[in-house]
Amino acid sequence: MQETVLVGVDWGTTNLRAYAFAADGSVRAKTARPTGITRMSVPYGDLLEELCGELGAGADTPALLCGMVGSRQGWIEARYITTPCTLDGLVEGLVSAPHAPRRVLVVPGLDSQSGSAPDVMRGEETQLLGLMDGVGGAERLVCMPGTHCKWVRLAAGRILDFRSYMTGEAFAALKDHTILGRQISEGAVHDAAAFAKGVGMAQEARGRGPGGLLNLLFGVRTLGLFDRLDPAAAASLMSGLMIGAEIADALGPQPPAEPVVVVGSAGLSARYRDAAEALGVRTTIADEDIATRGLWAIARAAALASR
């Protein structure tokens, strides 16, 4: 069995995923737990040691952590690095975790200052580094669906800029805490036709600004009032409206020449792919192991792990 030379942990808000890396960069073991930074019941160092033991890592095996563990609410704050940023820039921003029984480094997040308000990401930067080898030197647009979806521009080994959209969180808030939720059946499954209809409605309203989406969202209620929308399809229609509006804004007036790279869970990535392609935009879905490739790239550049 190959020796573990690095433990990498993608440590988020609610969950974590930990990996044992062999000297060739392959993942020889992995584990996951529902113990993100908001669900901690023991000190970070103690939980990390449990993970290292489970993964079969020796006492002197270093660890590299990314994600919300580096936020102000995490183990230690790893300050944001302003885009554009390279692998070397992220390595320079690595922070040592305090009171750790082994060498532990934490990856910084990224910020963008190009808009009217700052934008931030934490954890996605590691996934993006895992994409670099596969997208070449030309500029590419990356879509990273989630609670706060990120749209990122990459080129020539650099993370150029990005924008965040609160689509996932706004959808949950509208569904659970507004009058629109009354139109939605509990436990309804995804309705592809209703979703596509929502995407099309959002496209038709393109150019009307954010007020246009707000008007369309009210239609989820009124279509139900007039018995023109099955409650079982209401959530899918609303999802299509919101994702369609997000994609239209993120793409701007000129679709990208290269396919948009979609990075995320299988179900959500499929919805963004379907919505983008309905709007005439080609996509490709990234491999699920890009976070591990990013962790390994950072560890190698920081001389934390060697072949």
UniProtKB/TrEMBL annotation:
Please, which domain of life does this record's source organism belong to?
Bacteria
Presence of keyword Cell inner membrane: no
Keyword entries, A-Z = Kinase, Transferase
GO molecular function (one)? 2-dehydro-3-deoxygalactonokinase activity
Q: Which InterPro entries match?
A: ATPase_NBD, DGOK, DGOK_C, DGOK_N
Coiled-coil residue spans: none
In terms of Gene3D superfamilies, this protein maps to: 2-keto-3-deoxy-galactonokinase, C-terminal domain, 2-keto-3-deoxy-galactonokinase, substrate binding domain
Its Gene Ontology biological processes?
D-galactonate catabolic process
Please give the Pfam families that the UniProt record associates with this protein.
DGOK
- Look up the EC number in the record and give it: 2.7.1.58
Q: What is this protein called?
A: 2-dehydro-3-deoxygalactonokinase
User: Where does this protein come from, organism-wise?
Assistant: Chelatococcus caeni
